[in-house]
Amino acid sequence: MSEKRASESGPGPRQRPPATPAETLSAMDHVIATSMVAQHEMAQRLGLNASDLTCFGYVLEAGEDLLTAGDLATRAHVTTGAVTGIVNRLERAGYVTRQPDPSDRRRVRVAPVQAAVDRVTALYGPYYARLTEQFNDYSPAEIAVLNDWFTRTGKLMRDYLEEIRGT
């Protein structure tokens, strides 16, 4: 049976080859490994290390609800001391600024610098455009399953990380 992309044959799912859980876990392992290599490459191109780039991603994800250093430490699973170093490096590199917390003058919030957002968007934009295009191969129901799986697996990964760290 010929496999056609949904965008080539109209809306709707395409036929998928069968896969076992073991094959799927292997495919996932390969995606994770490639993603780790890509994250390091992207970070290097942006003049950052992978941990700092990941933290900058959390800053971007927060949007207008700026993170405190403590919030960032929690999301990145690092100590507050470690996150201070990360924020210092991001600030020196021109990726973030510290802004006073309007509700507590003892705290600061971490805000992205627009020029840095533009650099990151220029690098990641083409990749995310390709990922978005790939969603055309999936029905809304399949995308919902993917989203559910990624959401649940992310929680499972965070829970397991806490478990092995003994927290």
TrEMBL record:
Keywords tagged on the record: DNA-binding
Record flagged with keyword DNA-binding: yes
Top-level division of the source organism's lineage: Bacteria
Classification via PROSITE patterns: HTH_MARR_2
Region (Disordered): 1-22
PANTHER family to which the protein is assigned, alphabetical: TRANSCRIPTIONAL REGULATOR, MARR FAMILY (PTHR33164), TRANSCRIPTIONAL REGULATORY PROTEIN (PTHR33164:SF106)
Protein name in UniProt: DNA-binding MarR family transcriptional regulator
Organism: Streptomyces umbrinus
